[in-house]
Every structure is written in C-alpha cells, then in structure tokens.
Amino acid sequence: MTRSSRAGLLALACALASISRAGVDPGSAQAPRVEFVPPAPGSYQLQKIQTCPDGVLLDAAARPSRLSSYTTGKITLLTFFYTYCHDPWGCPFAYQTLTGLRERLLAEPELARRVRFVSVSFDPSHDTPVALERYARSLQDDRFEWRLLTARSVAELMPVLDGFGQDVSVVVDERGQPTRTVDHMLKLFLIDREGVVREIYSLAYLHPQVMLNDIKTLALAESIHRSR
Predict the structure, then answer these.
(1) What is the pLDDT of residue 90?
(2) Which of 23, 36, 208, 210 has the fewest CB atoms within 10 Å, i.e. is most exposed?
C-alpha cells in the first residue's frame, strides 16, 4: 500500500490535530475513518524504508539489552511514548489503537505469535524501569509479546530517536546536556523480521485494519520466502 493510496485520511487527521491544538477536549480519541477499502493482504508490497537504529536500553526489570534484540526475529510495531501522557491524540490514542490491534491479532493465534509490540519511553528521567513495571500491568496478556523499554539517560536515547527520524523537542540544562524530551509527533514504525522499517504510521494512517493488513502482508511475504 502506498502513501498516496491513503491520502484520503490526511485531511481528517489535520482537522483533528487542529482541534487538539486549539485546546478543545475532543473526548475519547477514535481511529480515523477509512475513506477507502484497504487492499487485501498480500496484494501489494511494502517498501524497505530504512534499517532500524540500535542502542542499549533497559527493560522493566532494569536489564540492559540491545534494541536490535527487539526489532528482529518477529514483525515488530514500535512506538515512543510517555507513561504519563494525557494528550488524547498522543500516547493514549496509540495505546488504544495498539490494544485494539492486539485483539485482532489474538483472533489469529498463529499470526499473533509472529508479532510483537515495542514501546520505548521518551523520558528516562521519569519512566524508570520501576515506572515501566507499574505501567505494564495495564498491558498484561501472556498470549502476546509487548515490550516496554527505557534508557539510562536522554543522552543515550537521542541516537535511537535520531536514527528513527522521530521528531521531538529536547530540554537541556545549564551545561547544554539533554534532560528530557517533550512535544513529540506520534509515529508508529512497522518493522520486518530483518530489522527493516517497512511503514511509518502517523495520525493520518493510524487505523487498526490498515495496520493489520500490512502485518499480514509482511507475514505472507516471509512465509513465501521461507518456502523457496
């Protein structure tokens, strides 16, 4: 699926963003209405956009590990977030979208086993492993892999953000050292088993059915490749 084929969603997303910026509470965020019929899984190809960056992050048990161990081996949907974000069109909307997508995946257990979600905190100073462990309770489902990660510092996180092209503002201290990140643009990255980004979803394209079809398209392509 090409970005041009999804352009019908962009106007709606811009209108929603304008409402949010104007300070009007839009209430519970809802997925953008699909103005087209998503093509069937496997009837299109997802282009290779970029190789995922790597870095050392911490999980909810404070264990250091390379990000690449969570962006390879399975189809991965990765996003950046704050545990304390309350913007209805930001992290809560991503959380709502991902939990809904997880339910669709769990309806097909074989597919669900081939997919993982990864959520990386923007704010290591607040989102410590202890904070991630508390937040993880709302995500708990032993049938599906959903990893929460943070960094030891914003300085260690920045190369990962830069590598993904994740737009964010950074607060620095009197020495010019990064202390926390703020005002980010919502993005989700669809990554294949080889660690290559195949799609980037912004608010305009953040719809569970579109994302599910893209995941199935990658899974079908990988199954065909393995059978050769």
Answers:
(1) 65
(2) 23
